[in-house]
Amino acid sequence: MTIIVDAPSNQVATQGKATNGPDRRRFGAMVMAAGAAGWLKSLPASAEARFIDFEWVDPSRDRAVPARLYWPAASDRKGPLPLIVFSHGLGGSRKGYSYLGEGWSTRGTASLHIQHVGSDQTLWEGNPLLLLDRLDGAADEREAIERTRDVSFGLDRLLERENPFHAAIDRKRIVAAGHSYGANTTLILTGAQVIRDGKPIGYRDPRFTASIVISAPPFYGETDLAAVLAMVDVPTLHVTTTEDTIRIPGRFSPVQDRIDVYSAIPTPQKALVVFQGGSHSVFTDRSLRNGGPLNPLVKRATMEAGLAFLDLVHHSDPAPMEEWSSTWKPILAAAPVAFLVPSRQADRRRRV
């Protein structure tokens, strides 16, 4: 591992190599164990991914904003890179969801994983009798706001001129993504807002052109979900499972909440993926005991769904999403329907 110094802010970043994804033989064995032998005949093994850790601090809030950047190898880069900025769930960290960072980067898409110090892995540390209090504090509205600021600040830092990566990022293809609490963060960054004292309060970041929302909880305490999500107008991919129930101390959310969030998004440019089986935490970096043989399949399918969705959004190309649906049909309860993007709608009107 080498050390890189971010000279302008004198922040230190570490650079390393992410672990390889499952090789073809191991992946094939998992498919057979899941009862889906005979499909996915030629999936390539994941190439080596590289990451860089940043120890950023937002001076305006005196708040640490650690981040991990997964960066494609030179052989995987073709022109300006799309960027996905990822927000972890309650109790997570920048090191989590590595399968997404590794998979996306080895396919030419960079991803920046933000760590939220007010709702990160430290929640599970300390006196267990005070865990409920810590969770209540982490789920507080103030922390929800700070999380959106973390993401915007991290994007600011990555795009500033002094950052060596800034010139290689395509400003028109920056995507917000997150799991669970991070999915709420993503929705706020792309237009979700609440009414306080008769006034709308939102923290939208207009740099995000699309979003990937994995296992989105309801907005706890809000009674009108449609009103909260009324201003979300970027193309959005929603991902969930038939067993995606949230059970943590003080919080419970049934699977239907995930569907309700999808339904409340007003834009027709949205897609819903529902896997057959798999718990709420199947999308985290937990072991195979969390979902058994289905676990790595859902992870890989989720990673690939994100890329296929972005081909649809940024290149008006529905073919990758259609191919994805065909490939992963054995583990899907509901597959996404490729919507028409504005450019395709215009082409259709001209032909008519």
Automatic annotation (TrEMBL):
Organism superkingdom: Bacteria
Taxonomic source organism: Methylobacterium cerastii
Keyword Lipid metabolism belongs to the record: yes
SUPFAM superfamilies for the chain: alpha/beta-Hydrolases
Protein name: Acetylhydrolase
Keywords associated with the record: Hydrolase, Lipid degradation, Lipid metabolism
